[in-house]
Amino acid sequence: MSSEGHPIERLTADQAMLRARRNDLRRYPSPERDGERLYPLASPTVTPSFRIEEGDTIFAIGSCFARNVEKALESAGRRVLSREFDLGEIGASLEDPANFFNKYSIHSVLNEVRWALERETYPGAEAIYEVGPGRYVDAQLGMARLDFPIETILAFRHRYLDAMAAVAHADVLILTLGYVETWFDRKLGLYLNVVPPTQLIKAEPERFEFRVLSYGDVLAGLNDLHALLLRHRTRPLKMLVTVSPVPLLATFRDMDVLVANAYSKSVQRAALEEFVMGKEGVDYFPSYEFVTLSNPAVAWSRGDYRHVSADVVTRIMDDVLRRYVGGDSAAAGSLSPEALRSTVRMLSRLGHHEEMIALCARHRDLADADAEVLLLEAASARRLDRLEEAFGALAKAQALAPDRPDALERMILLCRPMRQKARARELLARHAQTFPGRSGFREKVTWI
Question: How many helices and strands in the chain, by DSSP H and E?
Fold first, then answer.
C-alpha cells in the first residue's frame, strides 16, 4: 500500500541538501543570532517572482486589512484602482463607502469578481433582502441598512460591480483572505459575506446555514478565482496573496475564539501555500507573519489586539515596494522615509533607545531630513544621558522646522544638565524673538 500521499513539493535528498546549504535564512532566529529579524518587528523575507513597475495600477480586494494596504500604497504615490470609485447617492450616504469592498471569505471575493466580469450571473433583486418597509440589506456588502427604493439599490449595485470590474485590467491584484466562518443561502445557492439579517433567520430558519470552510474549500475557491481572472484578463496577471492578521471578533463555533481563530488563519495560510505553487505571476507575501510574529506592543493599535498598528502597516507596505519595485535596494536593507519614521516610533514606544539611535545612524541621511525622527532620536539620547548627541539632534530638528517651538524649547531645557547657562540665554533670546506668544515657557526657565 502506497504511503506517498500528495506533497506540494518533492525533491531528491541531494537536491534538498544543496538547497538548504544555499539558504542563509533557513535557521529560526535566536537572540544571539539574527534576533533583530524577529523582535520587536518580525521581518520575514520573500523572493519576488515579478516586478511592480512604477506606473502599474493596483487593485486590492479581501478583508478589512486590504483597506490598510490600499491606503498605504496610495500614500506611497501608487495608483490604487480599488479606491477610485463613484457609488452615487448610496455611496455618498455612507461614512466610508470603501468598506463595501471588504470581503471576508474567498467565496465572497469570488462572488463579486464573477458578477463583475460575467454580469449575467448576478442574481439581482433576489440577493437584496427586505428587512422592513422600504428597508433592505445586501449581505454581500456588509451590515449597512439601505433605506432606498429597490431600483436605486440595484442601480447602485451595478455601479459597484463596474468599479469591481477593474480587477480585469489592473496590473497588480492584491488578495487578502480573512475568515473561514461563513454563511450560506440555501435558496439562492450563495455564500454570503456577512451574517444574514436576524429577521430573515427567524422567518426562514431553514434557509440559511453556518458553514466552516475546509482546506479543500479554500483551495478550490482560490483556483476558481484564478481561472476566472485568466479568462477575462488581456494582460499578464501579477498577484500578491496573503492572509489578514486581523483575528475573529467572535466565533459561531462551540469553542474558544482563540482556537477558532487559529484554525481560520492556519487553514487559509496552508491553502495559499499550495495555491501559489507553479502559478506564474502569483506570490505569497507574509503580512500575516509580519504582524503575528512581532512584539504585540508594536503590532497592534488601539490596545485591542485586533487592529494592526499604522506603523506596522507602513513597514509591511514599504517591504512590498522595496522588494517588488526597489529591486536590489531591498537587499541592501534600505528603508523609505515613512518606514524609518514608523520603526523609530515603534522602538521609542518599546524603550529600545540604543537600537533606535543605531537605526538612525545607519540611515543618517534619512534621519537628518525628518524632524519627527530627530526629536525621537534626541529623546532616546537624553534617556541614555548622551546629552551632546541629544542637543545635536534637536538642533537639526529645529533647523528643519524653525516654525515649531518644541525642538528649541527642548534645547533650552537641555542646557541645564549640560551646565551651559550662556548658551541657554542665547537660545532663550532667540525663542522670545521667534515665539513671542510663548512667554509662559520662558517664565518657567528660572534657573538661568
Answer: 20, 12
